[in-house]
Specification:
By secondary structure, the chain is an alpha/beta fold. 41% of the residues lie in helices and 17% in strands. The chain has a 5-stranded parallel beta sheet, sandwiched between helices. Helix 3 links the parallel strand 3 and strand 4. Helix 2 packs parallel to helix 3. It is globular and about 30 Å long.
């Protein structure tokens, strides 16, 4: 069974657009509006996502808080994270959350799909 992607972003319109682009690229996609919702999605997801596309600045539980809690769960700690954020401080933030890649908003759709393809753990 192919693993889905998890898109975590509080901007509903942007999240839904990202989900559509990724579905068009052949991925199953789950979505969450903040880090707390994303943890709930992970708790229910079977199979687990093969990648998390993560915004950094969100209400309720932000990206770094989500990543810290995700990495504390042995079953989830190896799921790759790609940061998708408007913030310019990519290297420090990527290292802080253990991300494998950083995409700055707005991102070119082809770059998004290529980056997801490079880091996605599908099977």
């Amino acid at each position: 069974m192919t693993r889905p992607l998890l898109v975590v972003d509080d901007d509903t319109d942007l999240r839904e657009a990202l989900e559509e682009v990724l579905r068009d690229a052949g991925h199953a996609v789950l979505g969450a509006g903040n880090g707390r919702e994303a943890l709930e999605v992970l708790a229910r997801a079977r199979p687990l996502p093969g990648l998390v596309l993560l915004d950094m600045m969100m209400p309720v539980l932000d990206g770094p808080g989500f990543a810290h809690q995700m990495h504390a769960v042995p079953e989830w700690k190896d799921i790759p994270i790609v940061i998708f954020s408007a913030s310019a401080s990519n290297a420090a933030v990527a290292e802080e959350v253990g991300a494998c890649a950083y995409l700055r908003k707005p991102v070119d759709v082809e770059v998004l799909v290529e980056t997801v393809g490079q880091h996605f753990q599908g099977e």
